[in-house]
UniProtKB/TrEMBL annotation:
Biased composition annotated in UniProt, kind: Basic and acidic residues: 38-63
Function: Subunit of the V1 complex of vacuolar(H+)-ATPase (V-ATPase), a multisubunit enzyme composed of a peripheral complex (V1) that hydrolyzes ATP and a membrane integral complex (V0) that translocates protons. V-ATPase is responsible for acidifying and maintaining the pH of intracellular compartments and in some cell types, is targeted to the plasma membrane, where it is responsible for acidifying the extracellular environment. Catalytic subunit of the peripheral V1 complex of vacuolar ATPase (V-ATPase). V-ATPase is responsible for acidifying a variety of intracellular compartments in eukaryotic cells.
Transmembrane segments: none
Family listed: Belongs to the V-ATPase G subunit family.
One GO term describing the cellular component: vacuolar proton-transporting V-type ATPase, V1 domain
Recorded name of the encoding gene: BnaA03g58730D
InterPro entries attached to this UniProt entry: V-ATPase_G
Major localization listed first in the record, in broad terms: membrane
Stored NCBIfam families: V_ATP_synt_G (TIGR01147)
Keyword Ion transport attached: yes
Keywords, ordered alphabetically: Hydrogen ion transport, Ion transport, Transport, Vacuole
Residue span of region Disordered: 38-73
Protein name: V-type proton ATPase subunit G
Length: 110
């Protein structure tokens, strides 16, 4: 009878071991599924962040490019104004410069 009692105990241990193995396998499967889900979530989050960053970069690039065009236009206008101002100044004093040069050239010092 002890033999059948031992045999029953062994069967009970084998059943418990199989049940434990099933629990471990289920936990392992659940862990792998969660890791896969976490990886997918991370990839989605990375893609969203990359898209947001790229849009922000493009917007800033457009803003600075627009400013560059405005700066070029402003500088061209300022340059044209300065050239016109110098032409007016030159025409205003050119007669005085010519007179001064003629005076110095024609004056003889002894």
């Amino acid at each position: 009878m002890e033999s059948s009692g031992n045999h029953g105990g062994i069967q009970q241990l084998l059943a418990a071991e199989q049940e434990a193995q099933q629990i471990v396998n289920a936990a392992r499967t659940a862990k792998m599924a969660r890791l896969k889900q976490a990886k997918e979530e991370a990839e989605t989050e990375i893609a969203d962040h990359k898209t947001t960053t790229e849009h922000s970069f493009q917007r800033k690039l457009e803003e600075t490019s627009g400013d560059s065009g405005a700066n070029v236009k402003r500088l061209e206008q300022e340059t044209d104004e300065k050239i016109e101002q110098l032409k007016n100044e030159a025409s205003r004093i050119s007669r005085d410069v010519v007179d001064m040069l003629l005076k110095h050239v024609t004056t003889v010092n002894n």
